[in-house]
Amino acid sequence: MIQTAVVILNWNGEDYLKKFLPSVLEFSNSETTEIWVADNGSTDVSISILKSDFPTVKLLELDKNYGFTGGYNRALKQIKAEYYVLLNSDIEVTQHWIEPIIQYMDNNESVAAAMPKLMAYHAKDSFEYAGAAGGFIDKLGFPFCRGRILSEIEKDNGQYNDIAEIFWATGACLFIKAELYHKVGGLDEDFFAHMEEIDLCWRLKNRGYKIVYIPESKVYHVGGGTLPNDNPRKLYLNYRNNLFLLYKNLPKGEFRYILYLRMILDGASSIMYLLQGKFSFFMAVPKAHFSFYSTLRKFRVKRKENIKLTISSNHKEIFNRSIIFSFFVRKVRNFSALSEKGWR
């Protein structure tokens, strides 16, 4: 069995494959690492490019687009390795990007998943939105990162060059022990895309494992390759999936109160979109809530299973205040300025 399988999920990404796959091949140790592309039913010429230009890459062809979650679950069932690296097709890797993380995870049995320093491809001195220097959430379920709070992104001045325990690792470049990926059920396919990696990491943490950030590994991410940030479909998935995330993983006694507050905050954000004349964005928020309520029965089963298997739920990586309040009222613009009293 190979040590590490780098698995790129592709959907109509011919340009990204041509641009970024060479760096993956160049900077990955061929003796211990296999490079896979799982194609999610592409209709462009991705398959022919892979076969003609990248013959050493192992190819899995899925019959249709199963989304980020379904695509990876189907692909990883067919790949045998000690470690998986879920790698976006729009990432440029650098020399020795794999070794520091695998070595750390090898030496720390309690670590289930990890991520590198995620930098912006088009602004290489800045962190990238999708993960920056490690992910966290606040008490209401809003995600943020070391190096990125809401829309405010920090430049990398070495302030996050320490190995750190985090709450979630980015799905753009996620290192995970294969055995644990399958043990906890992989990515939740009801998410389809967005926040599914936070859900996976939360389940792992509830079962007593750690998620870490390793800055010795660095990659550059384009971001927004599938759905741009100003897309109402992406907004809908983010709001809906965040409710899925909270309902599945919050401990007993917390969810109803959090849902009540989220209804108020989400309603306020929906009205803001309406006042800005963004009707499709305005509609995306209530649509997300209705979709969540309609699937409660299915998710109740998942919630019961998660609670039954939970070892620890009081995670110190959850910010016990509102990141929205900190950003808009207290004017906090970088992670290090968050109050130390706000952490559990």
Largest sheet: 10 strands, mixed
* Computed CA radius of gyration, to the nearest angstrom: 19 Å
Average of per-residue pLDDT values: 95
Query: Which CATH C-level class of the largest domain is it?
Result: Alpha Beta
Q: Per CATH, what is the topology of the largest domain?
A: Spore Coat Polysaccharide Biosynthesis Protein SpsA, Chain A
Name the helicity range.
25-40%
Q: In summary, what is this structure?
A:
With 344 residues, the protein is of the alpha/beta class.
SSE layout and pairing:
Blueprint: E1 2-10, H1 14-26, E2 33-40, H2 46-53, E3 58-62, H3 67-76, E4 81-87, E5 91-93, H4 99-107, E6 111-120, E7 123-127, E8 135-138, E9 143-145, E10 148-149, E11 152-153, E12 164-166, E13 173-177, H5 178-183, H6 196-206, E14 210-221, H7 232-249, H8 255-275, H9 279-294, H10 296-309, E15 318-319, H11 323-328
Structural account:
This protein is α/β, with parallel strands linked by helices. The chain folds into two domains: 220 residues, Spore Coat Polysaccharide Biosynthesis Protein SpsA, Chain A (Alpha-Beta Complex); 80 residues. It contains eleven helices and 15 strands. The strands form three sheets. Strands 1, 2, 3, 4, 5, 6, 7, 12, 13 and 14 form a ten-stranded mixed beta sheet that branches. The longest helix has 21 residues. The model has no long low-confidence stretch (mean pLDDT 95).
